[in-house]
Amino acid sequence: MPDKKLGREVLIKIGDAASPEVFTKIASMNAKQIGINGQEIDMTDHDGIDANSAHWAEGVGGVRRLTLSGDFRASDDATQKRLAAIMLTEDMTSNAEVVVPGIGQFDANFVFSGLEWSADDGMTGSVSAASTGTVTFTAE
């Protein structure tokens, strides 16, 4: 059985959109959820099917998406401002690296769909994001 990994070990790094792009840690996540989802595309040809006989559905692999959500402790004020700026842009996207120790690193463009802050014990909050294109995975 693999070693249990703590959620606070998951790191999110956001790119600066420069060339070459530099990634800066914005948060360490805990209470996290990371999902790799796939959606089948139905390719069944319904034309000419005899309604009185059984037939099989045909499908192909289709849409995939990496999603993440969780609570975080922000690394500093500058990176929090960067995340807020992303949320206020027209498309709410940024290139990001999601590092999961013991698993690997996921690289993609992400749309950040939720951001909440709390100042109860330092600067903490929650964030939700989903990939917007191809995800590259590098195993540890």
Number of domains: 1
Structural class: mainly beta
Shape: elongated
How many strand segments? Answer: 7
**Strand fraction:** over 45%
Largest sheet: 6 strands, antiparallel, barrel
Description:
The chain is mainly β and 140 residues long. The protein has one domain (8-38, 61-139). Helices cover 9% and strands 55% of the residues. The protein contains 1 helix and 7 strands. The protein has one helix at residues 77-88; strands spanning 10-15, 23-42, 59-74, 93-100, 104-118, 124-131, 136-139. Strands 1-2-3-6-5-4 form a 6-stranded antiparallel beta barrel. A hairpin with a 5-residue loop joins strand 5 and strand 6. The two termini are 17 Å apart. The model has no long low-confidence stretch (mean pLDDT 79).
Outline of this structure?
This protein has 140 residues and is mainly beta. It is built from one helix and seven strands, in the order E-E-E-H-E-E-E-E.
Key descriptive features of the protein:
six-stranded antiparallel barrel, 140 residues
List the helices and strands and how they pair.
Layout: E1 10-15, E2 23-42, E3 59-74, H1 77-88, E4 93-100, E5 104-118, E6 124-131, E7 136-139
Antiparallel strand pairs: 1-2, 1-4, 2-3, 3-6, 4-5, 5-6, 5-7
